[in-house]
Amino acid sequence: MPAKKTSFEFETALTELEALVIRMESGELSLEESLSAFERGIGLTRSCQEALSAAEQRVQLLMERNGQSDARPFEVGGDGE
Hints:
Low-confidence stretches: none
Number of helices: 2
Order of helices and strands: HH
Radius of gyration: 17 Å
Mean pLDDT: 84
Shape: elongated
């Protein structure tokens, strides 16, 4: 297994993002705390999107190397979620 290029942990970021959303939805944060949480959430969302994009590119490269370049778009929530 190749060494990680960054210390970004996708699952940890998702967990933190979920916790931020819960805190913001609770209505118990001050305006300043809400803005700070929102800003952090935007950063986490961007990092997660970048990680997913990089993973998708890696999968595509692996498929091309194995002669399986019949790529199809990934459907989010396609199973009724």
